[in-house]
Design a protein that fits this description.
Layout lengths: L3 H10 L6 H8 L6 H16 L2 E11 L28 H13 L4 E6 L6 H17 L4 E5 L7 H8 L3 E3 L6 H7 L5 H13 L3 E3 L2 E3 L5 H14 L3 E6 L16 H14 L4 E4 L3 H4 L4 H5 L4 E3 L11 H10 L3 E2 L31
Parallel strand pairs: 1-2, 1-9, 1-10, 2-3, 3-4, 4-5, 6-7, 7-8, 8-9
Helix pairs in contact: 1-3, 2-9, 2-10, 3-10, 4-5, 5-6, 9-10
Length: 354
Amino acid sequence: MTSRFDQLADQVLAGKPATEDDALAVLRAHDDELLDVVAAAARLRREHFGNTVKVNYLVNLKSGLCPENCNYCSQALGSTADILKYKWLSTEEALEQAAAGLKGGATRVCMVSSGRGPTNKDVERVADMVGTLKTEHPEVEVCACLGLLKDGQAERLRDAGVDAYNHNINTAESHHDQIVQTHTYADRVDTVAKAKQAGLSPCSGLIAGLGETDEQLVEALFALRELESDSIPVNFLMPFDGTPFENTWELTPARCVLILAMARFVCPDREVRIAGGREMHLRSLQGLALHVANSIFLGDYLTSEGQAAQADLELIADHGFVVLGSQDDADGARGSVDPAKRRRGAGTVVAPNA
């Protein structure tokens, strides 16, 4: 029996874009429709991205000490979150971090710094890092994320070898002023436009779980479609202690999958990336989410730890996907693994694993 979501997938594959009502229907699907939604969205994912997963790696060039008051952010003005705080990494330190991600299978390195936006000196610093990185790893794709851009800065980054620029809109325009007051929604859109006009691939996404309504989640996704964001990172709020959003828990694993599926229906041919908070919120449904999204971050995030990189790579393989740009292991064979022996519980003096 064909589900209503299969019918929607048929329409999208035939070239009819999803509407706001379609997006709301996906987001509000019943629990017993979850697999129907995933199966239908997976058809779009497979059509445009096959069985590949793009692996991205974050390098946090400068952490904390930010003058902006984004209420969700552990690095923001007023945050008392217990995080690492440091000024700019040296080029050598940044390259060492990037090399670790590339060794783990990443094909894109995201070079990120906290702050409202870069000075021209900061841009030159990043340009030097990118130039050196590209010399040592010419195949790597580099995305910069340095905050709000001034005129000419995107062009300088492009000339240095940067391929993409990330600046998330984070939430709907109608909700923006509730989560940050030190810059406007228009400021964010302007930076995405500057990056695109300079020839950088625009990367812009959102954060779910900020107290937004269903309609505002839809509003944000349609704004990203309008902005023609090539890559859409979908973050799930990590409610750091010491921020205004501490103890804010609005998401379930199933809802996170539905949000990703909605992004796929609305933007079927765009990279949909499972970003910050996936381990915390998707939990055991991370693998299911890969059948909808086609991109993840490997390892750690800006101020929080992710799961082990090897676990990420196993997650990809276990669900029948291959890392984009890797040598596909056709037979999927694994080396010999000696199962862990039970040495606790019944018959021992050690407490059981229960």
